[in-house]
């Protein structure tokens, strides 16, 4: 095997770095160099495992059953070693997610090398063992891998401004320490982008020398555009939010983006929508997303460094996420915790929640101040009494029209996708028996779905005829959703229902049907300590929070769990102000224990 890029390509691979140069040279002679174009298959599920592969440069996706992404493999990593050593058939497809080069070692060549180099077998088995250990530690949703090479591509009819390119490059450099912008003008004289092996070597050299690359397209060099984007880990589509196309129609795809969208998996596609100034409203994002399957979308204003810094954190795997759990009136504790964090200067990059946590997440994503959040809380639950109007108990106990009107008044025409931050809301889908993750659509509808407490409110019926209820039924603190959306640090806000729930009432004291009817007619309270419908349902939805507590301890997330004030209950809306203050005071102490804002920022960057 021969490589023009450098004489010892195995030296940069951790798997072979400890081998003497002479042994690496012998191994290299037994290997075959392979080149894959973006989208080409390396192996197919069910194939015989008659060889090992090592990724020299590029990146590959591992797909189970043709579509389920179970792993991403990058430079220096082996491919197919489990099936090779087990002498079984391939258990998944492996597809190049960008133009890649690999080294192939056949079974007979492996026998020859291992007879001469026992250290090679030991190194491979160590890697094999680490992969098995990682697999048995649990299988959370696979977060997107941090991209090394990001390709910028014009979306819509307006070219990408130079100001945007420079602002993003500067933000990435400040976050990572290095970022180089390259375009077709940087190609050495005589280098043809159509010459795949030579061009791949050149791109790999730029990555080694410069770290993260920001690849620019759309400057009139079509061969460069196609070849360069095939070598990118992420496709970042950049469009001017306000376009001249029909308001009710999707924004049409531009030429290059139309070709490239189908070559990237949605999890590797981002959409950056820019505006010239803050006065331009954020609206119509759904028109962009209709034809562009973006994993994340970003709203930025040219000249706003904070906006580009947030995008850089999301691209570099250091974005700070916040997950807010459900818990009824205790949700005021979330607001108090945010007041302490925001007063200290902390910024969140992406948010999500369930039930009352959805309200707080959407308020964060909309840029609301915690004090304004608390005013809205008191108005909604105390003055408007959104959950205080009852109805005959056929479909629910609470008048859903009053709730719906209150939610419409609170959120107006605001859409989830138009919020400043990426935001998700979780509901429980009783038709599919699965979690429903909402990232687009009217905010009031998302809130109504996520907080449709069974029995209290009628369920929500979506356009497909599926039945949705409160997300707390299935995932009260949806951290795994955040882990599946992005890598990196998260703050998890949990609401504790307080002390162990024990009552003085005995089951035998439960009144008869006629007596309960009489109590309902006369307004009698019966046995004051016997659990009521609302208490039982709300408390039941807190059970899943315990599993989140355990998961957070193993994921590296930080947990914020304010104490419950005496007398507080899941429906005690009048005690919201006291609970907010308790959340604030608790988080001030918690923040001090973390070393203040500097300590949290160090944790976010992985420095502690």
From TrEMBL:
Q: Where is this motif: DGA/G?
A: 470-472
The keyword Hydrolase appears for this protein: yes
User: What Gene3D superfamilies has UniProt attached to this entry?
Assistant: Cytosolic phospholipase A2 catalytic domain, Jelly Rolls
* Domain PNPLA, residue spans: 322-483
Subcellular locations according to the entry: Cytoplasm
Q: Where is the signal peptide?
A: none
Q: Which GO terms describe its molecular function?
A: phosphatidylcholine lysophospholipase activity
Tell me which family the UniProt entry assigns to this protein: Belongs to the NTE family.
Name used for this protein in its record: Patatin-like phospholipase family protein
């Amino acid at each position: 095997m021969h490589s023009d890029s450098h004489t010892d390509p195995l030296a940069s691979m951790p798997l072979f770095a400890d081998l003497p140069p002479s042994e690496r040279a012998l191994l290299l002679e037994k290997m075959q160099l392979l080149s894959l174009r973006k989208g080409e298959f390396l192996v197919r599920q069910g194939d015989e495992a008659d060889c090992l592969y090592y990724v020299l440069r590029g990146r590959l996706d591992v797909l189970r059953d043709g579509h389920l992404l179970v792993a991403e493999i990058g430079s220096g990593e082996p491919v197919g070693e489990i099936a090779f050593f087990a002498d079984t058939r391939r258990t998944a497809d492996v597809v190049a997610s960008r133009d890649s080069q690999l080294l192939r070692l056949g079974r007979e060549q492996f026998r020859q090398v291992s007879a001469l180099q026992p250290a090679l077998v030991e190194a491979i088995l160590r890697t094999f063992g680490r992969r098995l250990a990682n697999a048995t530690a649990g299988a959370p949703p696979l977060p997107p891998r941090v991209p090394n090479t990001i390709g910028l591509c014009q979306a819509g009819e307006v070219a990408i401004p130079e100001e945007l390119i420079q602002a993003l490059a500067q933000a990435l450099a400040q976050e990572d320490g290095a970022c180089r912008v390259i375009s077709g003008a940087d190609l050495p004289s005589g280098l043809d982008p159509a010459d795949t092996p030579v061009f791949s070597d050149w791109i790999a050299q730029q990555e080694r020398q410069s770290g993260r690359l920001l690849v620019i397209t759309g400057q009139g060099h079509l061969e460069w555009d196609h070849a360069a984007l095939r070598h990118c880990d992420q496709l970042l589509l950049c469009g001017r939010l306000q376009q001249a196309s029909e308001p009710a129609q999707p924004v049409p795809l531009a030429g290059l983006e139309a070709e490239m969208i189908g070559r990237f998996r949605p999890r590797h596609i981002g959409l950056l929508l820019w505006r010239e100034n803050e006065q331009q409203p954020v609206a119509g994002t759904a028109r962009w997303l209709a034809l562009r399957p973006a994993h994340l979308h970003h709203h930025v204003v040219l000249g706003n460094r904070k906006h580009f810094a947030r995008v850089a954190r999301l691209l570099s795997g250091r974005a700070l996420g916040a997950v807010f759990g459900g818990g009824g009136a205790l949700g005021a504790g979330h607001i108090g915790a945010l007041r302490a964090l925001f007063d200290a200067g902390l910024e969140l990059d992406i948010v999500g929640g369930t039930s009352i946590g959805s309200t707080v997440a959407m308020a964060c994503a909309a840029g609301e101040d915690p004090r304004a959040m608390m005013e809205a809380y008191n108005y909604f639950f105390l003055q408007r009494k959104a959950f205080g109007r009852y109805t005959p108990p056929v479909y629910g106990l609470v008048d859903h029209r009053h709730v719906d009107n209150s939610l419409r008044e609170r959120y107006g025409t605001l859409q989830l996708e138009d919020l400043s931050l990426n935001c998700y809301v979780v509901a429980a889908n009783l038709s599919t028996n699965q979690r429903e993750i909402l990232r687009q659509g009217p905010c009031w509808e998302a809130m109504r779905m996520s907080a449709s407490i069974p029995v209290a409110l009628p369920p929500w019926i979506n356009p497909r005829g599926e039945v949705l209820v409160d997300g707390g039924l299935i995932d009260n603190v949806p951290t795994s959703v955040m882990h599946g959306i992005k890598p990196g640090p998260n703050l998890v806000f949990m609401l504790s229902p307080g002390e162990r729930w024990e009552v003085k009432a005995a089951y035998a004291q439960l009144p008869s049907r006629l007596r309960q009817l009489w109590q309902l007619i006369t307004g009698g309270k019966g046995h004051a300590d016997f659990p009521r419908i609302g208490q039982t349902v709300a408390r039941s939805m807190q059970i899943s929070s315990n599993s989140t507590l355990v998961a957070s301890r193993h994921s590296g997330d930080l947990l914020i769990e304010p104490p419950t004030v005496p007398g507080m209950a899941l429906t005690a809306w009048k005690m919201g102000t006291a609970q907010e203050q308790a959340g604030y005071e608790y988080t001030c102490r918690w923040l001090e224990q973390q070393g203040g804002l500097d300590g949290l920022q160090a944790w976010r960057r992985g420095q502690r």
